[in-house]
Design a protein that fits this description.
The chain is mostly helical. 80% of the residues lie in helices and 0% in strands.
Length: 207
Amino acid sequence: MLVDLNIKNFLAETASDSPAPGGGSISALSGAIAVSLGEMVANLTVGKKNYEAVDGEMKEILSAGEEARKALTDGVDKDTEAFNVVMSAFKLPKSTDEEKEIRKNKIQDAMKNAALVPLETAKKSFEFMKYIKLAVEKGNKNAVTDSAVAAMMARTAVLGALYNVKINLTSIKDESFRDDLSNQVKQLEKGAIEMEKDILKLVDENL
């Protein structure tokens, strides 16, 4: 599994001529890193003098972070696996009309999944941005710039994942499916960009 590689080997694998891991897996990793930084800020706040009043909210960040970090870490491998399924579908035989029909349907199913996996990455990363904002507002002020990096990594995770959704949608024939995901993409893009701006403004106010 990709997530079991050390950093040097993961980077070497990404840099190789293999098309996976690619942007989708890297987006999931960016999201997991964003969550980790948010959790760090919360951990640097819990139990600290002058921050006793926000212990409950910081523990809420930690609880949400544990779930989100696991989901996004899993997403690193899920994205590459989804890509591999697409490639396998394209290699199916197409000698007869029946084989062609089976191949076409398998490709479409695989493309749909390859769009849904990064969409989940985008959703998870965006959902955690509200906790990053909370960390800026009420967390340890000495770690406020770590929250800024978390916000930027989360924004990158969302937008990067959504590019992977969009490129897969170009090959999907199901109009209803395509329209539904396109609408979700637009909302998530707008939300992530606006949330990052709000968070970074708060960070600057605390410097």
